[in-house]
User: Which sequence fits this backbone?
């Protein structure tokens, strides 16, 4: 059985590792965090082990870099030269290129992953970019493993990861923000918070489920809700008049520019 060692056990790493474990991936797990607390807890959940220190790092098939991006340099100083040179490094760090990882860690095989938080409930999107040294067999194994608990999209150009980060990576935040605005407006108009919250949650869930299962485009689905001069029509006209599409376009451009900036 292959082994995965994760440096960091934050929410996203936990979602990925628990997703693998629940779907019976052919992996054993070794977890590390500086305080050991989260590593011990996650190891218990996935029948794994925790690594107490970085003095001696066990040889593994996969190393997952799951620390915060600003902690990478310090982590790299402690682990460079101690990793199995034939292992694949899996990075879930936003804005960190494969070249940066190869240089800092002294490795050649890197899988850069852009995940999103719905991975926490087994409905995530994971965008992949492999460095050239990763073998066909390793690519197939990792793709198959991640596909067991999420939707995987593999890109051939690393710059495309910078593009999609502001969409699939940041996208849940936009949806949650729109949800928050709808809930607060309902409350301001006299609906109880608990009822407003549940209604909007189910509205978003049902709309997403319908979109996934329907052959219709987003525009077609929108039009099926909209009657000329009706309630929905009036709301959409306000969006249009306020330049909603332009605002979203500008926001996505800003997200992309920041992603590119972080990758430099």
Assistant:
């Amino acid at each position: 059985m292959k082994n995965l060692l994760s440096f960091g056990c934050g929410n996203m790493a936990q979602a990925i590792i628990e997703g693998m474990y629940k779907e019976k991936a052919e992996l054993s797990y070794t977890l590390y965090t500086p305080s050991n607390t989260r590593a011990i807890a996650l190891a218990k959940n996935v029948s794994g082990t925790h690594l107490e220190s970085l003095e001696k790092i066990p040889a593994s098939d996969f190393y997952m870099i799951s620390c915060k991006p600003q902690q990478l340099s310090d982590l790299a100083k402690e682990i460079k030269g101690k990793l199995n040179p034939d292992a694949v490094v899996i990075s879930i760090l936003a804005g960190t290129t494969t070249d940066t990882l190869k240089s800092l860690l002294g490795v050649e095989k890197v899988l850069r992953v852009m995940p999103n938080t719905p991975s926490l409930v087994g409905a995530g999107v994971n965008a992949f970019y492999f460095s050239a040294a990763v073998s066909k067999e390793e690519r197939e194994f990792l793709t198959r493993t991640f596909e067991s608990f999420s939707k995987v999209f593999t890109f051939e150009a690393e710059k495309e990861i910078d593009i999609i980060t502001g969409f699939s990576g940041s996208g849940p935040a936009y949806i949650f923000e729109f949800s928050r605005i709808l809930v607060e407006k309902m409350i301001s108009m006299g609906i109880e918070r608990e009822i407003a919250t549940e209604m909007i949650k189910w509205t978003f869930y049902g709309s997403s489920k319908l979109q996934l299962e329907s052959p219709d485009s987003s525009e077609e689905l929108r039009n099926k809700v909209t009657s000329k001069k009706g309630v929905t029509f009036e709301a959409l006209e306000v969006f249009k008049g306020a330049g909603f599409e332009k605002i979203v376009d500008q926001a996505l451009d800003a997200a992309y520019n920041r992603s590119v900036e972080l990758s430099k």
